[in-house]
Amino acid sequence: MSPWLRQHRFALNAALGSVRKSPGSFLFNVLVVALALTLPFAGITLLDNLKPLSEQLSVDPEISLFMRDDVSRADAEALAPQVRNILTGRHAELAFVPREQALASLKERSGLGNVLDTLGENPLPDSYVMKLDGYASAAAAAEVDAITEQLRTLPGVDTVQVDSSWVKRLAALLGILRLALLLLALTLGIVVIAVVFNTIRLQVLTQKEEISVAKLLGATDNFIHRPFYYTGAMLGLFSGAVALGVVALALNPLNSAIAQFAQLYGSAFQLLPLGALEVAGLLAISAALGLIGALLSVRRHLARVR
User: Fold this and answer.
1) Over 60: is that where the pLDDT of 136 sits?
2) Per-residue pLDDT tens for 53-103?
3) Mean pLDDT of the chain
4) What is the pLDDT of residue 243?
5) Whether pLDDT at 119 is above 70
6) What are 162's strand-pairing partners?
7) DSSP code string of 262-304
8) Structural domains in the chain plus CATH codes
9) What's the whole-number mean pLDDT along residues 211-239?
């Protein structure tokens, strides 16, 4: 075995020995750090489940183009080639809706035919209705804005309405949730580092005499520091595992409540646990936070030990 591996094995054994000497204190610190990690891990799990849901939403925006009242029927129908030119390269269905057809449809749908008859003249303009498809994600629906702006520049156009605003609101909401989760994770990450920092500080104070003797015998700083690094990394790693376990256990009661709500909308949506790659990544982050806390604490406190 190489000297490098031998040194790290000794440091790991020393860290495990320190944990065995005071398992209660170590477990308590694990619980404290796990509580700090549970909330961001739960948020990551939620966003991971919402991401495919938002991408699978049926996003088929419908654009309605209304002509001005003073535009003749012939001029309105003559606008069709220009509208099709704007839609070139995009999957879309274009339909011209004469004002008479629009009024008849309104009477049929609203049940206010008698009321509309009292208006005398038809208040509805000629219009075009465009149904777009091929927008499999909320982000892709932003292209509708470009189409809408081009349609507004056509001659004789009064207003252009689009019904995909809810898609943009969903995308904006998910963006806000991601930003809020990032800020929360950063804040609680600092809490984790602070807890590990204090834990290693207490260990340094407890082993002050041992460290002094080791230095007198010629032990290098790296030799003395490594066990504390391993302790911090283990604290972060075990805390991350506990936090992920708590989140996984919480999915069962949450899914029971979600199932009742989803049935009202004919959906079978369920929260799924994170995949193996995501779990490994979060555990690595947890261990890294513990290691950072240990590094900061060791550099600050062991430098005072002589």
Assistant:
1) no
2) 655 554 567 788 899 888 888 888 888 899 888 887 777 788 898 888 877
3) 78
4) 92
5) no
6) 63
7) HHTTT------PPPHHHHHHHHHHHHHHHHHHHHHHHHHHGGG
8) 3-56+169-304 (no CATH), 62-163 (3.30.70.3040)
9) 79
As given in the structure block, the two tokens for residue 254 are 């949450």
What is the pLDDT at residue 298? 81
User: How far apart are alpha carbons 195 and 245 in whole angstroms?
Assistant: 20
> pLDDT, tens digit, for every residue of 237-254?
999 999 999 998 988 888
The count of residues in the chain is 306
**Both tokens assigned to 90:** 């995009």
What is the three-state SS of the chain? CCHHHHHHHHHHHHHHHHHHHCHHHHHHHHHHHHHHHHHHHHHHHHHHHHHHHHHCCCECCEEEEEECCCCCHHHHHHCHHHHHHHCCCCCEEEEEECHHHHHHHHHHHHCCHHHHHCCCCCCCCCEEEEEECCECCCCHHHHHHHHHHHHHCCCCEEEEEECCHHHHHHHHHHHHHHHHHHHHHHHHHHHHHHHHHHHHHHHHHHCHHHHHHHHHCCCCHHHHHHHHHHHHHHHHHHHHHHHHHHHHHHHHHHHHHHHHHHHCCCCCCCCCCCCHHHHHHHHHHHHHHHHHHHHHHHHHHHHHCC
Q: Residue 238: how many CA atoms within 13 Å on its side-chain side?
A: 17
Within 10 Å of residue 298's Cβ, how many Cβ atoms?
24
* Token couple for 204: 């340094």
